[in-house]
Design a protein that fits this description.
The chain is α+β, with helices and mostly antiparallel strands and 212 residues long. The chain is built from four helices and ten strands; from the N terminus they run αβββαββββββαβα. The strands form two sheets. It has a seven-stranded mixed sheet. The longest helix has 26 residues, at 186-211. The chain is globular, with a radius of gyration of 20 Å.
Length: 212
């Protein structure tokens, strides 16, 4: 499927093919005793199907960056962080398409965007250590399961296309590496200020220690 969908031969069968043999895309035996499946997800056409073994994501957030807006065709993207070992593909994991948004190529070069090579539904954003997957692809069985994926913040809110008054912290850029801006709850602002003060105190104490 990947070769039939416009990907170059060397990108599928060449040096990049090692992705087939490591997490998260490696082939799993059907009875993997140390993998407890808690959720199932799939692309739109159903060719790509996967399971997740972690009950709660490492983090979940809304991203308003222009790249997410263009790739999703929506004002923002709902994404959840997982370890690569938390996902097990049941089918379609060798029928995936890659896109390196920094170089605009279809190589499997990390970080890259991963999609179904047939229906083009986004599957994950694969980083060097973790993956971002999209909860809208998961088949939640209960409200409690879906609540595990509640977002903790908005990122790149300065790029937003619409205001979302939901009471969540709103970062101008990357989470914890930019400013909290309008729409952020006062308690989140105060927590951020305390964190910056603590960081500054630690740096001052570290500098004093080195001078002794």
């Amino acid at each position: 499927q990947a070769k039939n969908s416009g990907h170059r031969h060397e990108d599928v069968e060449g040096e990049q093919k090692e992705w087939k043999f490591r997490a998260p895309h490696e082939v799993h035996e059907k009875n993997v005793h140390n993998f407890k499946a808690l959720y199932e997800g799939s692309c739109h056409c159903g060719r790509v199907q996967y399971q997740l073994s972690r009950e709660k994501p490492l983090d979940t957030k809304y991203c308003h960056c222009s790249t997410c807006q263009k790739h999703s065709g929506a004002p923002f993207q709902w994404a959840a962080n997982f370890h690569k070992e938390d996902i097990k593909f049941l089918s379609g994991h060798h029928d995936l398409g890659w896109y390196d948004s920094s170089e605009k190529t279809t190589c499997h070069k990390l970080p890259c965007k991963v999609s179904c090579a047939y229906c083009r539904a986004p599957i994950t954003d694969e980083g060097r250590r973790i993956i971002l997957l999209f909860p809208s692809l998961i088949k939640f069985k209960t409200k409690e399961e879906k609540k595990n994926f509640d977002p903790t913040c908005h990122m790149f809110y300065s790029k937003r296309l619409l205001d979302i008054p939901d009471g969540l912290p709103k970062w101008s850029g990357m989470q914890n590496d930019s400013d909290l801006i309008e729409g952020t709850p006062p308690e989140a602002q105060r927590k951020r200020e305390r964190g910056l003060e603590e960081k500054e105190d630690k740096e001052k104490n570290s500098a004093k220690t080195h001078r002794r």
